[in-house]
Every structure is written in C-alpha cells, then in structure tokens.
C-alpha cells in the first residue's frame, strides 16, 4: 500500500471534521457513520487543539502469545509508508501497552501522519514532545512482549470492542480529530466527498439562520 501525500482524496478530506465524514457515511447507510468507538486523542494534547490526521490505514495485528499463528518476521514500524496512519489492533483487555515513544520516533521519521492504538500505549510525554498525533483506547506502562505478538501487517483487522463490529482494512482512510476516529472505506470515498460538501454547506446556512432566531426544526426543513 503506497500512501501518497498527493492523493486528491486526502487533500479534500483535510477540509472536513470526523463528524462531517460520519454524517455523509450515515447517508450511505454505512454502519455508525464509520465511527470507531473508544479511541480518543492523547497526543500532542489530551482531547484538545486543532490536531487532525488523515491518511490510508497501515494495519498491525497483535494476538495472544498462545495463538498458533507465527510471529511476523520483521518489525512493522520499519515498513510504514509515508502519509499513512498506523492502526494497531490489540486483543481486548490487554493490560500492557502495545505502542511506545520509539515507535512514534521511527514512524515520524518515515513520514507517517499519526497512530491509532486500539488498546494501550505508553510514553505519553515522549509522544507529546515529538508532537506526534496518537489516538488510543487507554495508557499503560509495561511493554507487550510477555503477553502478545504481531502476526499480521497490512491485513484486515476488527475493532476490539463489544460495542461495534467494525473492520479496518489496509488502505481504508482513517480520519482523527478531537471528536474521535472514523474509518472511511476506500471504495466509498469518492461517493462520500460530495455528500460532505453539501452537508457542511447546509449546516452553515442553518447556523446563520438559527443565530438570527429561526427555530431548528424550520432551519432543518429549509436547508437539509
């Protein structure tokens, strides 16, 4: 999977929030508007600031050590494509962190735009000192080796929560900001973009009229 910063879809997605993406995906009946529950911003700030990441997913699959699947022969972090968003899938309820500061140091050097950890990560201050965007489920202190191993890189993975049945595939677009993280299936991207534009324009007109005193119901009926 090559992640080109010149990808016109990435350039267009930069204009929209995760909420805009979800609104458009809901119009296409894509489940939960692509929202990936439980993943929030930890770096460069904790749920604050204008940080936004947009890029194709580079996926990493961790499983318990007892899993019969062979361990991936090389370290995933050395193959991160420029422009990618790293997505780490970790077995649920794993107490150890599966991602740390050295991973972000290498990812940043290779040109990744951020990391999404479906599990725990560590070295919070180190991540912030790098000014590297990290979204995660929670934090931890211990490294992963005593409990889990990587068995797949650039393979489809499932969101590790009982709340949703969501799949993230290599090359799907991941968008993250202060609202959370959304996955935009690559085959829906071109269809979704014009819906986002129309939705943002409609909401802008609604906001203008609501500020002037128009009721929400009337504004919604008029512009949406």
In short:
The protein is of the alpha/beta class.
Primary descriptors:
two-stranded antiparallel sheet; 10 strands; alpha/beta; Glucose Oxidase, domain 1; single chain; 224 residues
What would you say this structure looks like, in words?
It is a single chain. Helix content is 29%, strand content 25%. Strands 1, 2, 3, 4, 5, 6, 9 and 10 form an 8-stranded mixed beta sheet that branches. A two-stranded antiparallel ribbon has the order 7-8. It is built from 6 helices and 10 strands. The chain has helices at residues 8-13, 18-27, 101-110, 124-130, 189-211, 216-223; strands at residues 40-43, 53-64, 85-89, 114-121, 134-139, 148-153, 157-158, 167-168, 173-177, 180-184. It is α/β, with parallel strands linked by helices and 224 residues long. Keywords: Magnesium, Metal-binding, Methyltransferase, Transferase. It comes from Pseudomassariella vexata. This is Ribonuclease E inhibitor RraA/Dimethylmenaquinone methyltransferase. Its cofactor is Mg(2+).
């Amino acid at each position: 999977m090559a992640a080109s910063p010149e990808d016109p879809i990435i350039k267009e997605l930069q204009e929209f929030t995760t909420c805009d993406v979800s609104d458009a995906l809901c119009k296409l009946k894509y489940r939960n508007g692509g929202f990936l529950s439980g993943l929030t911003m930890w770096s460069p700030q904790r749920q604050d600031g204008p940080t936004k990441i947009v890029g194709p997913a580079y996926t990493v699959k961790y499983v318990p050590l007892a899993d019969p699947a062979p361990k991936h022969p090389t370290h995933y972090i050395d193959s991160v494509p420029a422009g990618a968003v790293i997505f780490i899938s970790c077995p649920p309820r794993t107490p150890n962190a599966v991602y740390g500061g050295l991973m972000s140091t290498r990812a940043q050097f290779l040109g990744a735009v951020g990391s999404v950890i479906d599990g725990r990560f560590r070295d919070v201050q180190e991540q912030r000192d790098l000014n590297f965007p990290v979204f995660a489920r929670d934090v931890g202190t211990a490294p992963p080796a005593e409990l889990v191993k990587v068995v797949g890189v650039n393979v489809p993975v499932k969101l590790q929560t009982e709340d949703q049945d969501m799949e993230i595939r290599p090359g799907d677009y991941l968008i993250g900001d202060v609202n959370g993280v959304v996955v935009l299936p690559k085959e829906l991207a071109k269809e979704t973009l014009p819906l986002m534009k129309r939705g943002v324009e409609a909401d802008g007109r609604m906001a203008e009229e609501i500020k002037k005193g128009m009721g929400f119901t009337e504004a919604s009926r008029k512009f949406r």
